[in-house]
Amino acid sequence: QVQLVESGGGLVQTGGSLRLSCAASERTFSSYDVGWFRQAPGTEREFVAAISQTGITYFVDSVKGRFAISRDNAKKTVYLQMNSLKPEDTAVYYCAASMYSFTSEQHRYDYWGQGTQVTVSS
Fold it and tell me: Which whole-number Å values give the CA distances from 64 to 50, 59, 69, in the listed order?
């Protein structure tokens, strides 16, 4: 079992930046593909970004050029750097790990964190 813990959420103004962290308990965390998802009130959870075990990254169109995802396997942590934040980015952000897939499909992720709130003020 893999436990994922997100941190780094908070309240920022439009145009600001925030870095989210996803820390894993699994010793072999480096073998997992990791994704970030978000869910705003009244909306379905959507894919944001993913990073493969080898460091390949992918982003949803709405955050391309603004967000970056990275991983530090020594620290068993994946980061989501969010820049030029917009009110539309307001959501609970979830970290998820997949044993087999580098994907934007949430159903392919095996483990999920508890989420961290990101609020971007207008």
Answer: 12, 6, 11
Whether the CB-CB separation of 49 and 37 falls below 8 Å is answered with no
Please tell me the predicted confidence (pLDDT) of residue 28: 82
Q: In whole angstroms, what is the distance from residue 80 CA to residue 82 CA? A: 6
pLDDT tens for each residue of 32-55: 999 999 999 999 999 999 999 999
DSSP for the chain reads ---EEEE--EEEETT--EEEEEEE--TTGGGSEEEEEEE-TTS--EEEEEE-TT--EEE-GGGTTTEEEEEETTTTEEEEEE-S--GGG-EEEEEEEESS---S-GGG--EE---EEEEEE-
